[in-house]
Amino acid sequence: MTSLNASLLASSAVMPPPALCFEGVAFSHEDKLLLGPCSFTLDGIGPTLVMGPNGAGKSLLLRLAHGLLSPTEGKIAWSGEGRPRQAMVFQQPVLLRRSAVANLIHALAVNNIPRRVRSKLALDALERFGLSACANKPARVLSGGQQQRLALARAWVLSPQVLFLDEPTSALDPAAIKAVEAAVREFHQRGTRIVMTTHDIHQARRLAGDVLFLSGGKVREHTPAEAFFNTPVSPEAQAFVAGELVE
Amino acid sequence: MENNAFYVALSLLVNLDASLFQIVVLSLQVSLLAVLIAAVLGFPLGAAVALWRFPGRGGVIVVLNALMGLPPVVAGLMVYLLLSRAGPLGELGFLFTPGAMVIAQVVLVLPILAALSRQKVEEMLGEYREQFVSLGMSRGRMMPTLLWDARFALLTVLLAGFGRASAEVGAVMMVGGNIDGVTRVMTTAIVLETGKGNLPLALGLGIVLLTLVMLINAGAYWVGERTRRRAG
């Protein structure tokens, strides 16, 4: 591990991950309110699992938090100075038409990591995610699970303080899901704040530290995982946990 | 037998006829240089139009698309007016030189490369945009990434540009003048020989031109397929 990565690792291990604060955030498109207004703070150790039925606004909430979209109302703030380093892993990984290792080197290059350490960091990350054998294969001919692991490796090399994952396993088979969940735990152990959406309640039980439950564009509850799964408060969450079809 | 076009073409080729050779080399030099210059200007232009939103962007796209069909004689006329003794660039003494022919072909090819690369890059941007924003890339930084990732599509675009450049006759005739040994290229030579009634030679030249274009396309296809398979 290079000194650069080591120092990043050390700093994130000592410092708690930055807290995320939504203050009256709402998002509407063409006069239709799609999310909010909602207020909450993510300052626990997480991982935070954003749950809710389809169309509840989970992906929208992630995109707002990551800054891919701007809220039409309210304010999104981070603790600490400036905007923390962050990365996002999408449901369908978006990979460049290049080799696996070139995808990571590109991400390092656009983040101004010095040229001489790029290959080393990229190859280390590929090894960590079990992709060493695929380093020189075109990224887009890899299997779905390998592509998602490559997307995670790309996030890893950027040493994000916050990692957003939007339904990262919904298109994968169980073995690939297991690998992704292991990767998420690694990020978590490195001190990265994890904010992840899923509609799979079993996955949430395996990973969640706290749960943010959405339905109909509103945050219905934000509680520690144990409380959410055992004693949900809102009727929507009760129905969801009980396995009913919630709209 | 001597009047058979294929025989004439073949004997010209086999004997490496010096004047034919010169014509072929000049044709390739002019068209390849024109395509190269047009690519250096046109690809970033196309990518920029795809990436940035500015007032009048729709108009720029329409003009670029329309200019793909610019008649070569009109391009020739414009460059002629520009380079003629009385024109704004007349002092350069460029008219009736291969340089003038390159300029005219750049004018013809540039809109094709810019318009088609704009389309390809915009398609690709739709797919990549969120990931790029997530990586914190500026539009300026997205441009080289997009152009490189569109490289296979752009190779085809390049061929379309080369096809236009090597096939046109109007513009190079007007600004080059079809001077024997100086600005005579294959297409202008074919026009001249046909006018003189020397049909076998004209047909022979036509066959050579066609064969060259085929070879270049086949080469590009082969290179493209090989790299595509390697890079996915």
Automatic annotation (TrEMBL), chain A:
<dbReference type="InterPro" id="IPR050086">
    <property type="entry name" value="MetN_ABC_transporter-like"/>
</dbReference>
<dbReference type="GO" id="GO:0005524">
    <property type="term" value="F:ATP binding"/>
</dbReference>
<keyword id="KW-1003">Cell membrane</keyword>
<dbReference type="GO" id="GO:0005886">
    <property type="term" value="C:plasma membrane"/>
</dbReference>
<dbReference type="InterPro" id="IPR003593">
    <property type="entry name" value="AAA+_ATPase"/>
</dbReference>
<keyword id="KW-0472">Membrane</keyword>
<protein>
    <submittedName>
        <fullName>ABC transporter ATP-binding protein</fullName>
    </submittedName>
</protein>
<dbReference type="InterPro" id="IPR017871">
    <property type="entry name" value="ABC_transporter-like_CS"/>
</dbReference>
<feature type="domain" description="ABC transporter">
    <location>
        <begin position="20"/>
        <end position="241"/>
    </location>
</feature>
<keyword id="KW-0547">Nucleotide-binding</keyword>
<keyword id="KW-0067">ATP-binding</keyword>
<dbReference type="Pfam" id="PF00005">
    <property type="entry name" value="ABC_tran"/>
</dbReference>
<keyword id="KW-0813">Transport</keyword>
<dbReference type="InterPro" id="IPR027417">
    <property type="entry name" value="P-loop_NTPase"/>
</dbReference>
<comment type="similarity">
    <text>Belongs to the ABC transporter superfamily.</text>
</comment>
<keyword id="KW-0997">Cell inner membrane</keyword>
<dbReference type="InterPro" id="IPR003439">
    <property type="entry name" value="ABC_transporter-like_ATP-bd"/>
</dbReference>
<dbReference type="GO" id="GO:0016887">
    <property type="term" value="F:ATP hydrolysis activity"/>
</dbReference>
Automatic annotation (TrEMBL), chain B:
<dbReference type="InterPro" id="IPR000515">
    <property type="entry name" value="MetI-like"/>
</dbReference>
<feature type="transmembrane region" description="Helical">
    <location>
        <begin position="146"/>
        <end position="165"/>
    </location>
</feature>
<feature type="transmembrane region" description="Helical">
    <location>
        <begin position="59"/>
        <end position="83"/>
    </location>
</feature>
<dbReference type="InterPro" id="IPR035906">
    <property type="entry name" value="MetI-like_sf"/>
</dbReference>
<feature type="domain" description="ABC transmembrane type-1">
    <location>
        <begin position="24"/>
        <end position="220"/>
    </location>
</feature>
<dbReference type="InterPro" id="IPR049783">
    <property type="entry name" value="ABC_perm_TupB-like"/>
</dbReference>
<keyword id="KW-0472">Membrane</keyword>
<dbReference type="GO" id="GO:0005886">
    <property type="term" value="C:plasma membrane"/>
</dbReference>
<feature type="transmembrane region" description="Helical">
    <location>
        <begin position="20"/>
        <end position="52"/>
    </location>
</feature>
<feature type="transmembrane region" description="Helical">
    <location>
        <begin position="95"/>
        <end position="116"/>
    </location>
</feature>
<protein>
    <submittedName>
        <fullName>ABC transporter permease</fullName>
    </submittedName>
</protein>
<feature type="transmembrane region" description="Helical">
    <location>
        <begin position="201"/>
        <end position="223"/>
    </location>
</feature>
<keyword id="KW-0812">Transmembrane</keyword>
<keyword id="KW-1133">Transmembrane helix</keyword>
<dbReference type="GO" id="GO:0055085">
    <property type="term" value="P:transmembrane transport"/>
</dbReference>
